Amino acid sequence: MFVFRLYSIIISILITNTISCSQLLTTLLENNPFMGILNPELYRAKILELETYLKSNVPEEILKARDEAIEAAKKEKEEEAEEKGDEKDDDNNNELEIEKIEAAALAAAIADAEEKQESNEDLSEAESEFLAKVRGLKFASSALSFIEVFESANVSFQSMLMSCNPSDVTEALRFFVKAKHFGLPCAVTGMKRALALMWSNETNIQEEVLKAFVEVFVAEPGTDGKELLPENQIAQNFLDLAGEATVSELASIEEALGRLVKKEIIPPDVFSILWTIASQAEGQLRASAMLVISMAAGADPKIVDSAYRLQNLYDAGLGDYTEEHRDWKTARSAACALQRVARAKVDPSSAKYIILDLITERLVAVARGDWCDDDNEEDTNAWFCAAEQAINAIFTISPAPEKVAMEILLGHQEGIFGSLEEPSNAAHSLRLSRFFFVLGHIALKLLIYTEVLSSSVRRANSAKTVKKQESASGKDSDATSKEGSDEEEDDAIEAELGIAAQAEAETERKVAEISENEIVGRGMISLFTPMLLRVVANEGGTYSSSVLMKSATLALCKCMCISKSFCEKHLTLLFSVLAKAPNDDQDLRANIVIALGDLAFRFPNEVEPYTPMIYACLRDKSTRVRRHTLMVLTHLILNDMVKVKGNVCEIALCLQDKETGIRDMARLLFHELSKRTNSPIYNLLPDIVSQLSQLNLKQEVFREIMLFLLSFIKKDRQNEMLMEKLIQRFPKCTSINQKADLAYCIAQLKVNDKCIKCLNDTFKLYKDALFDEDVLKNFMSVVSKAKKNTKLDTKDVIEELESKLNDTAAAGMENVKASNKAQRAKKRAAKRVQRKKEWEEESEPEESESEEADDMEFEDGAENQPANMVEDDTPQVEEKTRRGRSGRRRGKGVLS
Fold this sequence. Notes:
Elements (H helix, E strand, L loop, with lengths): L1 H16 L4 H9 L9 H17 L3 H25 L2 H32 L6 H28 L1 H8 L4 H16 L4 H9 L8 H15 L13 H13 L3 H16 L5 H13 L3 H16 L7 H12 L1 H6 L2 H11 L12 H18 L8 H21 L3 H17 L11 H46 L7 H16 L1 H24 L6 H9 L8 H15 L3 H17 L5 H17 L1 H4 L3 H6 L6 H16 L9 H6 L6 H15 L5 H14 L5 H12 L5 H13 L7 H13 L4 H9 L1 H4 L6 H16 L6 H70 L2 H29 L1
Helix pairs in contact: 1-6, 2-8, 3-6, 4-5, 5-6, 7-8, 7-9, 8-9, 8-10, 9-10, 11-13, 11-14, 12-14, 13-14, 13-15, 14-17, 15-17, 15-18, 17-19, 18-19, 18-20, 19-20, 19-21, 20-21, 21-23, 21-25, 24-25, 25-26, 25-27, 27-30, 30-32, 33-34, 34-36, 35-36, 35-37, 36-39, 37-40, 39-40, 40-41
């Protein structure tokens, strides 16, 4: 057991310290003390089996004590439950208490058995068997702990796959190969992540990934890919791999599988087994088999492009089983496989043409949604992917796809609005959603089909021209016939007049006319665009179905990708929908953002005025919307389709986003920009600093962003110019915090002679901010860096600058202290004045009341006295009254 614990400790240390120890970890895995298959599920089942046996074979005395303890615990809990009246909680507590008692009894039995073994006592057969089970339990528990430790290393190895060092990638791949040989679950997830490296720019990494893919899923363990697994095992591995993969992982799997098919590494019998599974299996297994077949057909169309295989595909992917179970995954996979088949030539006598015609009918049924359940929204959501691939397959195999597309639209129209004889007054929201989805996708496929035909015409004209040139060069000038000379003369005249170039230009003009005016302007699709626009606008909130709104908006975006005038006319509507989209409908906003990226690629001038609104989506509450927006902007910026200046602050803020993927993508964008020769980051930095400083960000957020961006400033000239620009911004700052941020940016730049001279010459621009400790600290760090640089020849300037910094900072601190003291004194004086006013306002009503009372008393006394007494005593009464008033005033002041 000591060895097992030592292994776990070593692995934990290696994982936490550095990923460079991956080679040692792989060696530990190869020579682990458990050997065999390290599948955790097997060990968990074994542990459960052994614990059950041991609990049922506990010695009598321990078993008796256990039962007594359980009974006592139950009685105690029952008494407590009667007092509280909480039976449910009591039952839960009883179960926990019983589990603790049973665990304690098992531990006591194990300790007793081990004690007997150590004392060399004679054990009975039952005791020996019990002790053997105990050892088995400890072994299985140690193995499970060992497996869990290696599973925890999975994150570190996956991070190594993204390393810039090829040796790290190789070691990580080697680990996942060994992990698969020992049955560790992390092997499959790690290899799925590794398959993304199939798109790497380095060929050697692609080869390493492909080699690891073969060793994990195709070859026998430990044979370096020379001996393959049985065909059924290879097929099962592919099914497991494709069954639980994401869309991005499926693209990488398809790339790897296609290369193996081209190299003829995969035995043909594997695909025969997959065809059998696709025909006989049900559910996800059938769909996965059809999907793997379609992936392989991308590299070798012969896998599906034959009458026999097409019949199999018809029965397995689009037959009665798919219709009855509405198995849209299988239908989608079958449609993907059909896109590897060449376009059918009209030949009623050809078996292939006949079966493709039947397949087209089934694809039309899928695209029309004939099998959909109108009462099940999830069924329609699953149908969307199948319908998209079905339409793609129709435009691939049909000799006249435009006619088939019209048939699909008419079928939807009749299903929603009824026929002329029996019109319908209401439309089901899910049917309308399916119709709009098909409408938009057919419009887009018609554009692609038109461009494909145009390319075919250009290729045919080029081939005709080349053929004429070859025939003309092969003829001897003396042996040419009169007819041949006339033809050469005509060609010369055509070349001279530019008729060939004119014909090509005319073809392009016609294609542009079709895409601009015919598809969504005068064609059948244009009949439904007013209804589409009305649903998308949704004035008054008439349409409440989220599925309908998403489908209609997506259809509008696809139609806008076709015609420039249509796009320009309805861009305002699209952005209004984006702005008014509900907060909980992140799918709608994410779809619009992705569509805007396509529109910006196709019609950049029309979308350019709305660019700030696209950047505004980087602040969306939804992580998905922010991620998609940044991804779209990254592609547009790196392809020079949108201007980054003026809005780059929004991308800079993504460097501190809560989502790790968004932060990494923003870093990748700035890394790619730094590789360009025109130094875009240097040119953008002043705007970034200015905009970020106005947002009142937290100091650590601002500084982390600027620390990353300033690391791209490498050239001395750029450091000098940027330092000068930053210093010139000090007088424009409105707060000391902005000045502190500028000082921090200056402190991160490299220092040379010109930088020091610039700081010294422009001292008056920033000297009023040196009273702040943060500002002073940053400028002093510049001075300290300059002192350490032995190449500098401006020691006198450095000393002068340091002296001015210290003196100005000291004076500034004294001024600040004096100003603060004056402010405090001013506040105290204002408070005293305010209190005095309040006292006077309170005293005036009291004085007026007391005067009225005195007057009343005086008048009453005068009436009760003789006239001669009133006249004689009047001066005395007035004097007393005056004394009383003054006394009251003095008393009021003292008390106050």
